[in-house]
Amino acid sequence: MDNVRKTAFSGVQPTGRITLGNYLGAIRNWRPLQDEYNCLYCVVDLHSLTVTQVPAELRKNTMDLVALYIACGIDPDKSSLFIQSHVHEHAELTWILDTIAYVGEMNRMTQFKDKSRKHADNINMGLMNYPVLMASDILLYQTDLVPVGKDQLQHLELARNLAERFNNRYSPTFVVPEALCFQNGCSIKSLQEPTAKMSKSDPNENAVITLFDDPDTIRRKLRRAVTDCCSEVRFAEDKPAISNLLTIYSLTADESIADAEKRFDGCGYGVFKDAVADAVISVVEPIQREQKRLAADKSYLENVLKQGAEQAERTARKTLDKVYRKIGLIGRVR
Ligand code: ATP
Ligand code: LTN
C-alpha cells in the first residue's frame, strides 16, 4: 500500500438485492476516491449473519455483490476488493474492542433498536455487536475516510470513540476516522413509505428499486410509488414522497433539484414519474449488463478476491500485532 496517500474504507452487506439507495447513498461515491486514496472496498459477509440467512443465497449474494462493485467502477488494480471473512483479523480485533465497548452505548444504537424490533425472534449477540465489528473493519486499516450513507453516522461515531478510547488508554494506535457523506448526506426513502429509508431487507418489493430490476419493473414500481397531495412537483418537507422522487431524479439525471422543479412545473405526477424512470433506467442498465458479464466469470472474480484479501491482510496483521502488544498479549514467535 502507498504510505503517502490517505486510506478510505467502506463496505456493504450481501443481505439481498442492492438497492438504488445503496448505490446513490454509498457505492456510487466510491469510484472517484480511487485516484486519491488507498481504497479498500469490502463485502461485509460477517455482518450479514446478524439476521438469518439462507446459506446458498448468501453465497450467491456475496459473489453478485463483488461483481456489482466492479460494475460500479471499483477497479481491482486500484483498490483492494475483498470479502470480510477472508481476513480473519476483523473478527479478532472485534473481540479486543468488545472489551472496551460499553453495553450502555451499544444499547443506544438506533440500528440495533430498529433491527431488534424487526427481528424480535432473533435478537442475537451479533446484532448488538454489529457496530463493534464495523469499527474493527475501519480501524484495522488506519482508515482516514469512510464513505457511507447518512444512516451509518452513528456507527462511525462509535468507531471514532473506540479509537480514541483505545489510544488514550494505551498509546496512539489507531487513526481516528472521518465520515464522508455526499450530497448533504442523501438518504433515499422507500417508494411506499417515504419517511422510512429504502432498505434491501424491506419485504415489500414495490418499496424498493434494486440494481437487478429490469426496466419494466423499475417503471412499474415508480408508477406505483405513493405521492403527496396537490399534484405539484416541488421539494418540501410536507411532500416527502415527491421530494424523494425529486432526489432520485436529480441524482440519476444529474440535474439540480431547482432545475428539475422548473422542468416539471405543471406537468403532473404521471409525466414526472416516467421521467424519473427514464433517468433511473439509464443509470442502472449499463451497470446491470456489466454485472451480469462479470458474475459469469468466476475465475476472474476469485483472482480479484485473492489479491484483495492478500493486500488487506498485510495491513490488518500489522495493526492487530500492534494492538496485541499494547494490551499485554505475548506476541507469537514466527
Ligand atoms: P439492510 O436492509 O440489510 O439493513 P441496507 O439497505 O440498509 O441493508 P446496508 O448494507 O446496511 O444496506 O448499507 C450499505 C450502504 O448503503 C451504507 O453506506 C448505507 O449508508 C447506504 N444506504 C443504505 N440505504 C440507503 C438509503 N436508503 N439511502 C442512502 N444510502 C443508503
Ligand atoms: N454497517 C454498514 C456496512 C459496513 C461498513 C463497514 C460501512 C460494515 N462495515 C465499514 C463502512 C465501513 C452498513 O452500511 N450497514
List the keywords.
globular; 334 residues; single chain; mainly alpha; binds L-tryptophanamide; 7% strand; two-stranded parallel ribbon; 5 strands; binds adenosine-5'-triphosphate
Describe the 3D structure.
This protein is mainly α. Helix content is 51%, strand content 7%. It has 13 helices and five strands. The strands form two sheets. Strands 1-2-3 form a three-stranded parallel beta sheet. A two-stranded parallel ribbon has the order 4-5. Helix 8 links the parallel strand 4 (145-147) and strand 5 (178-180). The chain is globular and about 70 Å long. The mean pLDDT is 94. The site of adenosine-5'-triphosphate has 20 residues, from helix 1.
Low-confidence stretches: none
Rg calc: 21 Å
Work out the oligomeric state of the chains in this entry. single chain
Helical percentage: 40-55%
First-last Cα distance: 23 Å
The number of helical segments is 13
The coarse silhouette is globular
Helices and strands, with pairings:
Blueprint (H helix, E strand, L loop, with lengths): L6 E6 L7 H6 L12 E6 L1 H4 L6 H17 L8 E4 L5 H10 L4 H5 L2 H9 L6 H16 L4 E3 L5 H17 L8 E3 L34 H10 L15 H14 L3 H7 L5 H27 L2 H30 L7
Helix pairs in contact: 3-12, 4-7, 4-13, 7-8, 9-12, 10-12
L-tryptophanamide binds next to strand 1 and helix 7.
Summarize the structure.
The chain is mainly alpha-helical. It is 51% helix and 7% strand. It has 13 helices and five strands.
